[in-house]
Amino acid sequence: MTKQIIDNLQPGTLDGDSLYIAAEKINANFNEIFTHFGDGSTLDGGYVGLKNLNAGFIVSEGANSYTSRTLRANMGSGITITNGNGAGGDPTIDIQDSGVLPVNSDPVFYPNSGITVDVKGRITRIQDPSLLTNTQSAASTATQQASSATNSAADAQKLAINAEDSQFTLSDGTTTGFSALHYSAKAAADVATIGTSLSDAQTAATTATTQAGIATTQASNASTSASNASTSESNAATSESNASASASTAAGHVATALSHANTASGHATTATNAANSIGTAVSDAQTAANAAATSYDSFDDRYLGAKSSAPTVDNDGDALVTGALYFNSSSDKMFVRTSSGGWTAAGSAVNGTTNRNSYTATANQTSFASVYDVGYVDVYLNGLKLMPADFTATDGANIVLASGAAAGDTVDIVGYGAFSLSNFYTKTESDGRYYLKATADSNFLDAALNLSDLANAATARTNLGLHAVASSGDYNDLTNKPTISTTASNVAGGTANGILYQSATDTTAHLAAGVSGYILQTNGTGSAPTWVPKSSVATPTGVASVMKLSI
């Protein structure tokens, strides 16, 4: 077959077109292998190594198929079986002779051919030839090296970015240019690796082709040996079966080699696709970087950071923008740029509505410390309010008089701060929160005016927090008894004209009415009161006579 040669693989000379051309040549080589071997399953088409053997070796019994075949020995007096490595001592088998091995020798296995021969030169066993195994290994190596070439190409395209204002052309005709000179040395090394990997892949593909040819030769040798062995009638059937298995095994390995070859071709195509898409990815990254730089510049123009005094330009040396902020490290205050081109404190420096300071001046004293919001301070000298032209108040920390005060003068400073009211409602919020009910508004129900509006007595008791009381029975037997804290009236249980008193056990007791002329006598805290004769009570002393005068 015609071999495609990949050239121009010198480090530093590869570009997108070179990679694409190299991948096409690899693909052409593997397509040639496929065209030569067929699909590897029926061994027909271009499988010249077995299809066009000399007449008399393998005869096809079916159209274009070797699934059923007859082995015939049409050769002369003998055949020669040679080891694949060409080593000395290759056995020579002459079926007409008495043997090809020393008498009583054990069967000998030849790994390159995959056959075992007995003392008479008959094939007793056919296994996978080692050369076919080497073919499969070579095809696998080709696949791995092609994959390595693909990965190296992808890595190189990620890192190999041309110098600023230059361009490289990809296979699809698109162009992209970017500046990243600090990656150029690494990219050149990776490109050299790609060239080596592609060369290795080409060598592996050639090796796969050579090994497949060797497999064909070995399969032919196996068929020849089987044909010659068929002169031994007792072993003809066995030899035919073993030869068929060997041919089928060879076909399977060829199919495996073809599969790996196609896989290698696919990886080469993937490398080309990766090279075609690298420009778009880098372009997107550059766009994102530009957007980030723009956003940072906008932020840096507005947030100027800490300054010891009010700045006149931004951090880039450009004109200040309205709304810019900076922190004054001298006064510990944040300032904001106004639309009129000045700086104003972002928050009040005064805790509350006012900050008051009073000083007695020394001779010719001009500066007095006081915290205030710029533009919101009053200064008094000996009780007289000074005009703004009489003092300077610009830093929020000091008041400087235009003329020094005399010794003993009184200087009073009142600074005003911004404040906000919290926890209150505006009229709109109040109107939305507190609803003024109309008389006929169905959204609200009037409260019950009296107990008669309630559904039943149980509901009334529940609303009033009362308990049910039995309508009859001994009061002492009742539960939830009320406590009487006021004077009781009409307490039942006593006798007519009797007297109520509190007993020693803190209970209410009754004392029956006494005999006429008796008086009530207390007997101390430990005994109940009693009725006693008036005569038994001593006449009190010190009682003045009462005289009734008539006028």
Largest sheet: 4 strands, mixed
**Percent in strands:** 15-25%
Report Rg.
61 Å
Strand order of the largest sheet: 10-11-12-13
Could you tell me how far the N terminus lies from the C terminus, measured between alpha carbons in angstroms?
A: 172 Å
The residue ranges in which pLDDT falls below 50 over 5 or more consecutive positions are 40-61, 65-75, 77-84, 90-98, 159-186, 229-234, 546-551
Strand segment tally: 24
Mean pLDDT comes to 68
Structural class: alpha+beta
Q: Percentage of helical residues?
A: 25-40%
SS field, number of helical segments: 7
Shape: flat
List the keywords:
disordered C terminus; 551 residues; alpha+beta; four-stranded antiparallel sheet; flat; single chain; 33% helix
Briefly say what this structure is:
The protein has 551 residues and is α+β, with helices and mostly antiparallel strands.
Write the layout of secondary structure elements.
Blueprint: H1 16-37, H2 48-51, E1 58-62, E2 65-71, E3 79-80, E4 92-93, E5 108-110, E6 115-117, E7 123-126, H3 130-159, E8 168-169, E9 175-176, H4 184-229, H5 236-302, E10 303-307, E11 325-328, E12 333-337, E13 343-345, E14 354-360, E15 365-369, E16 377-381, E17 384-385, E18 391-392, E19 398-405, E20 410-416, H6 427-433, H7 457-464, E21 499-502, E22 508-511, E23 518-521, E24 530-533
Parallel strand pairs: 10-11
Antiparallel strand pairs: 1-2, 3-4, 5-6, 6-7, 8-9, 11-12, 12-13, 14-20, 15-19, 16-17, 16-20, 18-19, 21-22, 23-24
Helix pairs in contact: 1-4, 1-5, 3-4, 3-5, 4-5
